[in-house]
Amino acid sequence: MSISGTSMLPTLVPGDVVWISKIFPKPVTGDIFVFTAPPDPTKNHIKRIVALEGDTARTKQGGRVLVPKNHIWVVSDNLKCPTVLDSRAYGPVNCGLIVGKATCLIWPPSRWSILKDRRNDEKAQIL
Asked: What are the pLDDT digits (tens) for 90-122?
């Protein structure tokens, strides 16, 4: 998958290409996943999972949401971008919309890396 936007800065930058694995274990917080965008099923979004079913997450307005069964709460790494669409705007994402897990940054060669989780950074998003 080629990255076109800035929502995942600094982890992923426009022009990066990531490997998407369609075979993956159960999603965990901190992982980066690709899923069909809830507001536009013709597009895919790539975001970081910050909450799983049963967790309480924060909305853009500062409210709280209990993530329902078989759903995930996803947030962009670039929290300063005002136009970013993620779960804070469109709510929990049904796990049935998951396309795959982003596992490696494969292009450009100078940025090749395994995409690591950031579980410790996400605690601010889970209440």
From this structure: 999 999 999 999 999 999 999 999 998 765 555
Structural domain tally of the chain?
1
Establish if 25 belongs to a structural domain: yes
- Tell how far CA 34 is from the center of its chain: 7
Q: pTM score, two decimals? A: 0.88
* CATH code of residue 45: 2.10.109.10
Among the options 7, 76, 87, 101, which is catalytic? 7
Q: Active-site residue 80, yes or no? A: no
Hunting for tokens 């993956």 — which residue is that? Answer: 24
3-state class of 91 per DSSP?
coil
What is the C-alpha to C-alpha distance for residues 26 and 78, in angstroms, rounded to an integer? 25
CA angle 109, 113, 119 (to 5 degrees): 155
* Contact assessment for residue 43 and residue 37, using Cβ atoms and an 8 Å cutoff: yes
Fill in the amino acid letter for 107.
W
Residue 50: partners with Cβ closer than 8 Å, 6 or more residues away: 29, 30, 57, 73, 74, 75, 87, 122, 125, 126
**76 part of the active site:** no
**Options 2, 47, 69, 123, the catalytic residue:** 47
